[in-house]
Amino acid sequence: MLTREELLRIFETAGAIRRGHFELSSGRHSGTYVQCALVLKYPRFAEKLGRALAGLFSDARIDAVVSPALGGVVIGHEVARALPAVRDAVGGGVPAMFVERDASGLLTLRRGFELQPDMHVLVVEDVWTTGGSTRETIRVVEEAGARVVAAGALIDRSGGTTEFDVESQALLELKIESYEEDECPLCRQGNVAVKPGSRFVRSAG
């Protein structure tokens, strides 16, 4: 099992934990930003983290892993690869599926993904902030008739305040302070906040 220090070293080596002055998607400001895509782009790191996260659920029967797109896709695949296959009719191991948003903005299973009513499912995400995407994914799985046995994430940046109706574990808990803009100490120091993440990419025109 990876220690907290080893986990932090992996994320910091990949530049996935950034220090500075950031405006988050919520509009709040923070001195720390976590971008798991920067560590998961390295296959060996992704494999190592997937094995570690899968190890937290070694006592559970898991027939499938389901993740919210886009952030959970890579780590969900690596967790599934690390899990022992209880039922494997096709010889491919534990299947890794993902839910994605439809035209109405709701998460749904697409691309021919199907869940059977007796399947035991692990929901996997990259980062928990409020846990909203994980809760939506749990809803989709349950509406398909399958059973969510647990939820896992690489990082819980709520500091352990995010709760679910199923067992949940994160590899790493980080309590990351954030502030409303008019209360931000970094703004008071005259630092300008940057907007990281793909949703903030703007066209140059």
The CATH architecture comes to 3-Layer(aba) Sandwich
Structural class of the helix and strand makeup? alpha/beta
Radius of gyration (Å): 18 Å
| Approximate shape | globular
Number of distinct helices: 6
Low-confidence stretches: 198-205
CATH topology (fold) name: Rossmann fold
Determine the strand fraction and express it as a percent band: 25-35%
Major sheet summary line? 6 strands, mixed
Q: Report, as a whole number of angstroms, the end-to-end distance.
A: 49 Å
Q: Got a strand count?
A: 8
Q: How many domains, as an integer?
A: 1
Average predicted local confidence, pLDDT? 90
| String of helices and strands | HEEHHEHEEEHEEH
The CATH class assignment is: Alpha Beta
Strand line-up across the major sheet: 5-4-3-6-7-8
Structure description:
This protein has 205 residues and is an alpha/beta fold. It has one domain (4-200): Rossmann fold (3-Layer(aba) Sandwich), CATH 3.40.50.2020. Helices cover 26% and strands 26% of the residues. It has six helices and eight strands, in the order H-E-E-H-H-E-H-E-E-E-H-E-E-H. The protein has helices at residues 4-13, 37-40, 43-55, 73-82, 132-143, 185-188; strands at 17-23, 29-34, 64-68, 96-101, 107-109, 120-128, 147-156, 167-173. The strands form two sheets. The chain has a six-stranded mixed sheet, sandwiched between helices. A two-stranded antiparallel ribbon has the order 1-2. Strand 4 and strand 5 (107-109) form a beta hairpin. Helix 3 crosses helix 4 (73-82). The longest helix has 13 residues, at 43-55. 35% of the residues are buried. Mean pLDDT is 90; it is low at 198-205.
